[in-house]
């Protein structure tokens, strides 16, 4: 009985002192490191909020880019309140603008929550979102460091490092291209919105002109019309 109690205490101590980032020899943990990226458009309803969770490992570079493309209904505020919380619920970054970029280093492994809040009470907002995590490197155990020193000067290690740098550079180029694409999409939706506005406003003005002309003609007819033989004017 005393032995079981001792094992329980030791196991609980291991859980509390365990590093949030799993070491490389923990192959059975089911966790891995990789560069994940996502981009899509989402509509946030009036006075609503849309939240997303993204898993990230420790010592990663987390980025979030968003842009308000267009608004619907009676919305007149293009700003969007965006927050990013850590797995413990702490606020990591926030932004209150129509276009924003956020970058920070992930200090804890877990699911990071991103929330998009709409200020407008009577109109929705369409937002283009682009987020992900970039891992520049990884920690190695002592045995792997010793093995890495032996093959540091090998051709294979040099090629692998060059390919990794090239992939990171290409990924950053893709981010800038994606941001430019979001700006182009925003201009397209703005042009479409202005076209619809001008079309409906022109149709309304035409209807008002025709209606006012008809009313004027009706008044003139009633002015000259009489039941007796004598005209009014």
From TrEMBL:
Q: Topology versus the membrane, per the UniProt entry? A: Single-pass type I membrane protein
Q: Where in the cell is it found?
A: Endoplasmic reticulum membrane; Membrane
According to the UniProt entry, where is the signal peptide? 1-17
Top-level taxon of origin? Eukaryota
Q: Which UniProt keywords apply?
A: Endoplasmic reticulum, Membrane, Signal, Transmembrane, Transmembrane helix
Q: Tell me which GO cellular component terms the UniProt record holds.
A: endoplasmic reticulum membrane
The protein's predominant localisation is endoplasmic reticulum
The UniProt record lists the GOLD domain at: 12-133
Keyword match Hydrolase = no
Q: Tell me its family.
A: Belongs to the EMP24/GP25L family.
What protein name applies here? Transmembrane emp24 domain-containing protein 6-like
